[in-house]
Amino acid sequence: MIAIAIAGSAAAAAATALLARWLPGWIAALLAAAVVGGMVAAIVWRALVPMRALFRALAGTVASYRDGDFSFGITWDKASDLIELVDAHNALGNALREQRLALVQRELLLDTMVQNTPVAMVLVDPAQRIVLGNLAARRMLGEGRRLEGRAFEDVLATANPAVREAFARGGDGMFTVGSEDDEDIYHLSRRSFRLNGRIHELLLLRQLTAELRRQEVQTWKKVIRVISHELNNSLAPIASLAHSGAELLRRGQHERLPAALATIEDRARHLEGFIRDYARFAKLPAPRTEPVAWRHFIAQLRTQVQFVEELQPEDGIARFDAAQLEQALINLLKNAHESGTSADEVRLSVRHVPDGWRIDVLDRGSGMNDAVLANALLPFYSTKRHGTGLGLALAREIAEAHGGRIALLNRDGGGLCVSLVLPS
């Protein structure tokens, strides 16, 4: 390019010298300037044409990247500083292309998982139209047909009545489809989230029949083992002592009969209480809630078991089934005494919290390890030699029947806190 410029300058100088011989000086100067300017413009134009093509190519690839097409690259074989810009641009394109490929592969994997999961999944937009329905949802709600684009209300209109009723109730929950002899149990879960700035709802229908059947069988087996164990523990000594009593009577050793009969009575009473506790757990009625003053309730509770109270506020009134809650708290307070805690360290704390009332039963026993904490609220789980495993389970049933919850946690410095929260 420099050589061309030099040659052009020499040619311009020669032309200027020639014109100067035949024309006046000022005309010759103007003509010479015009000739030189035209030649310089031509030289500059020839130099800028490739760069203009490069800039157009860069603008085109950027537009393609914006549209999601990363398949373009630029070739530039001229020796200049622009080669670094071209290489950086091509490297960006390669990186975007690899990221897009990885994203597409993840989307394909996610779609495969969503479509083939046994959980029926339906995504509904704010207008209540179905955006996505996987294969399980098509089979359950659409008789195998596609659900996308259809009004969710129209799909529900042709669904099983039990499904319609479950959605009509709102929120999460379980429901049964089919007859009593051939039924399937489902769990409905509903979650809302924002997608592209709009609120969508994700509906999940999971079949639990097989899982619940397995759990039911395992629970019945455990119930039978516990009942058999308790019955054997009581009936075996009763039978043995009855036989011994008959022998004592036959031998005329009447003085030893009262001890044998007392032991028989004790084991019979224990068995009676065991069966009564099971019946109470199995037949727990729905709570009959009514306004109850905490001060009066605690005073009544103190006549049956000893504890130190903490009540805030003093004149608090809550709504619950007094008989059921009393039954739950007596079990918890007795457990606290049985933990080895002295009577003056067994505390019952009742205080008002934003979401209702919190009731804490606190002791200074040895607490529970992680395995016991994870299982203590399950029915029939007990670490006591003669425990039925129903005390904490019954407290949980009563709390949840009131719309509340129960939790266990170890205390700093030793001991256990059993916390019940009841709604206002």
Summarize the structure.
The protein is α+β, with helices and mostly antiparallel strands and 424 residues long.
What does this entry look like structurally?
This protein is an alpha+beta fold. It has 4 domains: 2-103, no CATH class; 117-207, PAS domain (Beta-Lactamase, 2-Layer Sandwich); 212-282, Orthogonal Bundle (Helix Hairpins), CATH 1.10.287; 290-422, Heat Shock Protein 90, CATH 3.30.565. The protein is built from 12 helices and 12 strands. The strands form 3 sheets. A 5-stranded antiparallel sheet has the order 2-1-5-4-3, sandwiched between helices. A 5-stranded mixed sheet has the order 7-9-10-12-11, with helices on one face. A two-stranded antiparallel sheet has the order 6-8. The longest helix has 43 residues, at 209-251. The N and C termini lie far apart (89 Å).
